[in-house]
């Protein structure tokens, strides 16, 4: 995929905490020294899910080699949930930012399968939700995945 084909969705980008100035400068220096990206830019339908900063650096330095990995997701809500889960797994986040991302992962996961984001009841009302563990509520499942209480996820 060409760099010019990559797209940015402001809603996707807003879920990713920006790097501090010094961190971005260090990343840029590391990429230039390497001459390539060590991690691919992850996309869904051409929209960047992971790699917004690397994308900006690539635009400034056209000689850098890069790869794009397109992942398959059912819809925009699954993409938002993927972004939140990915960020929660990689970043040193403030407690407030972590709670924000947990809430957004919960909301997006519910919307991806047709649920209501404020409803923390068991998801077993319709066939499209059969792939979700019907014994656990969505908020409880996400809480267990991230080692927090369910109230942290949906409050």
What does this protein structure show overall?
The chain has helices at residues 10-14, 21-34, 52-60, 76-90, 95-112, 138-146, 150-154; strands at residues 41-44, 47-50, 68-70. It is mainly alpha-helical and 155 residues long. The chain has two domains: 3-70, no CATH class; 76-154, no CATH class. Strands 2-1-3 form a three-stranded mixed β-sheet. The N and C termini lie far apart (40 Å). The model is unreliable at 119-135 (pLDDT under 50).
What is the secondary structure topology, with strand pairs?
Elements: H1 10-14, H2 21-34, E1 41-44, E2 47-50, H3 52-60, E3 68-70, H4 76-90, H5 95-112, H6 138-146, H7 150-154
Parallel strand pairs: 1-3
Antiparallel strand pairs: 1-2
Distinctive features:
155 residues; mainly alpha; 2 domains; 7 helices; 3 strands; globular
Please provide the ordered H/E string of secondary-structure elements.
Answer: HHEEHEHHHH
Radius of gyration: 17 Å
- The residue-averaged pLDDT reads 83
Strand percent estimate: 5-15%
Largest sheet: 3 strands, mixed
Q: Order the strands across the largest sheet as they lie in space.
A: 2-1-3
Which runs of at least 5 residues are low in confidence (pLDDT < 50)?
119-135
Number of domains: 2
Q: Roughly what percent helix?
A: 40-55%
Instruction: Count every beta strand, where a strand is a DSSP E run of 2 or more residues.
Output: 3
Q: Helical region count?
A: 7
Short description:
With 155 residues, the chain is mostly helical. It has seven helices and three strands, in the order ααββαβαααα. Helices cover 48% and strands 7% of the residues.
């Amino acid at each position: 995929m060409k760099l010019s084909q990559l797209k940015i969705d402001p809603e996707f980008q807003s879920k990713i905490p920006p790097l501090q100035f010094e961190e971005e400068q260090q990343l840029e220096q590391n990429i230039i020294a390497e001459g390539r990206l060590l991690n691919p830019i992850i996309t869904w339908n051409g929209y960047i899910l992971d790699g917004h900063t690397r994308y900006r650096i690539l635009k400034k330095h056209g000689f850098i080699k890069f790869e794009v990995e397109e992942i398959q997701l059912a819809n925009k809500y699954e993409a938002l949930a993927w972004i939140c889960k990915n960020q929660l797994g990689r970043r040193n986040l403030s407690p407030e930012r972590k709670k924000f991302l947990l809430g957004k992962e919960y909301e997006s996961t519910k919307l991806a399968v047709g649920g209501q984001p404020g409803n923390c009841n068991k998801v077993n009302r319709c066939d499209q939700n059969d792939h979700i563990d019907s014994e656990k509520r969505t908020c409880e499942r996400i809480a267990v995945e991230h080692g927090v209480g369910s109230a942290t996820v949906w409050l």
